Amino acid sequence: MKKLLSVLVVLVLTLQVQAQTQEKLPRVIILATGGTIAGAGASADRAGYTAGKIPIDDLIGTIPSVKKIASISGEQIASVGSQDMTIEIWKKLAIRANEIFAKNEADAIVVTHGTDTQEETAYFLDLVIPSDKPVVLTGSMRPATAISADGPKNLYDAITVAINPETKGRGVLVSFNEGIYDAREVMKMSTTKTDAFGSPNTGPIGQAYDGRVEYYSRAVREVNPPKPIVLTADTKLPRVDIVYMYADAPADQIDFLISKKVDGIVIAGVGNGNFNKAYMEAVKRAVKAGIIVCRASRAPSGRVVLHDEINDEELGTIVSDDLTAQKARVLLMLALTRTKDKKQLQEIFFTY
Ligand code: GLU
Fold it and tell me: Catalytic: which of 14, 21, 33, 36?
């Protein structure tokens, strides 16, 4: 009897110590959206797979040692390949993230996401989450069932980035293949390689390696961040489309968008946001119809300069600064919920 009692006391004490240690660990909520990181294939040696098949709790189960560094829980927000990412899922993610921080349910959030549109989601969240607590996106290039699947390592690294004290106040980040990237700058650079991301204008801001996180730089616009854009469940995002420019392109797509009465058009122009005469005339028609036209570039790096080869004041266009067309679209959609004034919109592109 005495022996049984002492065993019970030891057990209770051990459980208490475990609970206390667990309490002290940083709390991370993983918001899962699907993607290859949750993908399952028919066999380990084939690249083909279905994205978003594996539930988040199973993904967390692939990195058991993470329990020593963080108290983790997972929520399934969606289960899609990120080519099927939608504005509705973006809103759901953002609203849940803001709720988590407002109610102090976690110290950091990790979002698992397909890589195809990860940069767009990262930038969207960056613009609408006002908290300085870390939000880190990650994913994988190989499905969980593949040889050398990169998902578990990327997820583990993203958690180490999310709980690192130096991550606070850096806005939304992407952690991938040991690189840490700013949401505004990051871009998918490879269709299939595991080193899929880069920031062509600025490079990565840090590195996650062996459970350690090192930062080398800080994004300038995160040092003095502009006012976040307010997003609620009722926010209706305007329609903004992207048109790609190429040699001898006819302007039919722009005229089609005018007929659709879209709110904004981003042109992925050539070089410094240039386009041909057919586009020029169609852009004039779009501007006359009250559509905001933003000049971006199909070139992966550099900025589009206001009033350069094209006189924006005369034409009535704005420029994307150094945002890619896909990110300029995200910013224009959100900025249009605040103002339709071209000068103010341009100012937003120069400061966000
Ligand atoms: N199309 C998939 C997606 O974006 C594959 C890319 C990936 O996740 O790596 O979800």
Answer: 36
Is residue 82 lining ligand 1, measured as CB closer than 6 Å? yes
Ligand 1 centroid – CA 324 distance (Å): 19
The closest alpha carbon to 26, from 66, 70, 65, 67, belongs to 70
Q: How many other β-carbons are positioned within 10 Å of the β-carbon of residue 34?
A: 27
Tens digit of pLDDT for each residue in 282-329? 999 999 999 999 999 999 999 999 999 999 999 999 999 999 999 999
Q: What is the pTM of this model?
A: 0.91
Residue 36 is among the residues annotated as catalytic for this protein: yes
The verdict on the CB of residue 273 being under 6 Å from ligand 1 is no
Ligand 1 atom nearest to 80, measured from its CA: 10
Q: Which residue among 37, 49, 79, 82 has the greatest number of ligand 1 atoms within 8 angstroms of its CB, and so is best to mutate? A: 82
Degrees, nearest 5: CA angle 73-85-94: 50
Would you say the CB of residue 196 lies under 6 angstroms from ligand 1? no
Among 3.40.50.450, 3.40.50.1240, 3.40.50.2300, 3.40.50.40, what is the CATH number of 240-351?
3.40.50.40
Helix (H, G, I), strand (E, B) or coil at 274: strand
Pairing of strands 197-198, 187-188: antiparallel
Question: pLDDT by residue (tens digit) across 121-130?
Answer: 999 999 999 9
